[in-house]
Amino acid sequence: MVVMALDHVRDFFHFSAVQGFEPTDLTRASGWIFFSRWITHFCAPIFSFLAGTGTFLAVMRGKPKATLSWFLVTRGLWLIGLELTVFVWFGWDFNIHPHSYVLATLWALGTSMVLLAGLIHLPTWVSGLFGAVLILGHNAFDRVTPSSWGAWAPLWNVLHVPGVFQTGGCSIFAFYPLIPWLGVMAAGYAFGGLYKLSPEARRAWLWRLGLALTAAFVIVRFANVYGDPAPWSHQPRPGFTLLSFLNVTKYPPSLCYLLMTLGPGTLLLAAWDGGHPAWLDPFIVFGRVPFFYYILHIPLIHGLSYAFNYFRFGHAEFTGITLGIAAPPTAGVSLVTTYLIWIGVVAALYPACRWFAGLKRRRRDLTWLSYF
Predict the structure, then answer these.
(1) Closest by alpha carbon to 105, among 250, 229, 3, 247?
(2) What pLDDT does residue 326 have?
(3) Which of 46, 51, 115, 302 is 20 to 30 A off residue 108, Cα-Cα?
(4) How is residue 91 annotated by DSSP?
(5) What sign for the dihedral angle of Cα 6, 9, 15, 18?
(6) d(CA 318, CA 43)
(7) How far apart are CA 227 and CA 221, in angstroms?
(8) Predicted model pTM
(9) What CA–CA distance (Å, rounded) separates 27 from 279?
């Protein structure tokens, strides 16, 4: 959750993002700009994967599946509803536009939860197989275009190819196509079965799996045949060939992208399975209230950006992420300043998150708190 905020601070503040060029564009970006974007790739897949694992742990602790299914469906729909309204209108943009919608992170998480609500009633291996098929096989359809679906083209945007489509007088941007995000959460649910093992056996399996996934990324990516629609290539600048190798596709997440992130993520689970370093203790607060943190951090970052730009230029309507309004040519700050703002944002949110985590712990009778 903390690393995720770096990406969003960069979106609103850093010169490259404000001026509209991709931090992974190797013809324009520096190594540090690339790294600042690349490190945040680990957030979404690991969060979605472990949301599935958390669901398995709830089942393992004896929570009735019928109750859990209802929670997954209602929380999933809650996330989707917030994505389409509050987060766009008062987070990413400070503008209510009821005829324009973005299907992004919460949309993918919410829809995955709704699907998982049904999968938990089937044998665990079904979820694992479903997840593996989507993760391993979806790149076979990279060459299929929405136009080939004719009148059903928007469905392919929703499932696999990011893009904008029109329906019912509304413009919808499918930013996070569902495949293979649905499979990531399902695979995470099956992965939870490892936590039935003894600590020693579980750690051994976590190390093996993490190393296998990481090695698979290197092998599949090096082959340059399958697993990512953007092949890597040799670059003229020293070290940039490695960046090209690491520059995998997130929208939708390619096989290489998921191997690159879930492999090291599993290794971290193995390393910290017996206990985490003391310096990580403050970060647990954010992990206990991830959605509360999420709904606070985007408006806060956007508000700071708006105030900063209004003070500097006398107007700040260009700070909305989805509005597409060109920024002044001098807008944006350095990478060092971006990092300082990120640290400040995380520190500012800590007291509120600590308070809310305490509230959730004390008031378990308030079931609505579980939706945050």
Answers:
(1) 250
(2) 87
(3) 302
(4) I
(5) positive
(6) 26
(7) 7
(8) 0.94
(9) 37
